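User: My instructor asked us to take a sequence, write out its structure as tokens, and then describe one feature of it. I'm not sure where to start. Here is the sequence I was given:
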Amino acid sequence: MPRLRRRRQGPAARNLEARDFRAAHFLYKSTPDDELPTDGDLANTIKQGRVDKGMPAWGGLRDDDVRAVVSYIKTFSPRWREAQPSAPASTAP
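Assistant: Let's start with the prediction itself. The structure tokens for your sequence are:
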């Protein structure tokens, strides 16, 4: 089997869009506009996944492990050191 040398060449990668955690732009969050997501937002995305976007759900991880992944994601961007996420947006009508 030939070795794949370039990114996004494998059959499972057809519809993948790579995320750049250094920019700290997140799509799935409860906070407004360009504000950082809450730790709970990140944890929910990790646990529930985004299968339509190629990210599997990791619901079987222990809570401590999910918190460790959230903490690791937050090391990529200086935005996490510069600003704190706001409270989740209200979902009340």
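For the description part of your assignment, you could build on this observation: The chain has three helices and no strands. Try explaining in your own words what that tells you about the chain.
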